[in-house]
Amino acid sequence: MHLNFFEKVLIDSRGDLMSISEYCTRDIITISKYSTVLKAVDIMKKNKLDELIVTEFKEGKVVPVGVLTSFDIIMNGSITEAEGKQVFVKDIMSSDVVICPEHFEIPETIDLMEQNGVKRCSVVNESGHLIGLIVASDLTQLLTQQLSTLTKFESRSLIGKTNLENLYDRL
Predict the structure, then answer these.
(1) Quick count: other Cβ atoms within 10 Å of Cβ 147?
(2) What is the mean pLDDT of residues 124-132?
(3) Predicted model pTM
(4) What distance in Å separates the CA atoms of residue 24 and residue 125, rounded to the nearest whole number?
């Protein structure tokens, strides 16, 4: 198997390309599309969040169906307590949620995010149940760590070559 540089950086200890399910955040805060905007604002304030993954319960699974951002709330004028009690999340959320299957490898996930122009993807298992969230900043951190490790190995290799060349020079 021929791997490009990017893929070499993303190989785990088993020799497999890293799956997104290994790196997604699993402890995520969601909201039902049938909740009020007031409840969403309360959750966002308490957890210091700018957005929530919107879900619904379908066929025994929690399925991502949208995203609600603080911008959505402000733009729809649903920021007073009285209005927030009467408007539901489903009425103002964005339905453009990008879903990433848990088996996707990191390069595939990055491609998916790039193609859709998003910074985050909802990660689902084979049956479509929401299992986590992957964010571009998490991938950046992971890639930085992997590149740092690769650089250390490369540095050792270069030092080894230099020492070997020095040994041959002495002979």
Answers:
(1) 14
(2) 94
(3) 0.73
(4) 12
Structure confidence at residue 144 as a pLDDT band (50, 70, 90): confident
Residue from 50, 57, 6, 9 nearest 32 by CA: 57
pLDDT confidence tier of residue 5, bands split at 50, 70 and 90: very low
Contacts (Cβ under 8 Å, ≥6 apart) of 93: 33, 54, 65, 66, 67, 68, 72
C-beta separation of 122 from 100 below 8 A:
yes
Confidence bin at 55 (pLDDT 50/70/90): very high
Any alpha helices (H) in the chain, and if so which ranges? 5-9, 37-47, 70-75, 81-86, 89-92, 106-116, 136-170
CA 118 – CA 99 distance, rounded (Å)? 11
- 134 phi, psi to nearest 5 deg: -120, 135
58-78 per-residue burial string, b: 16 or more CB within 10 A, e: under 16:
eeeebbbbbbbbbebbeeeeb
Element (H, E) at 69: strand 61-69
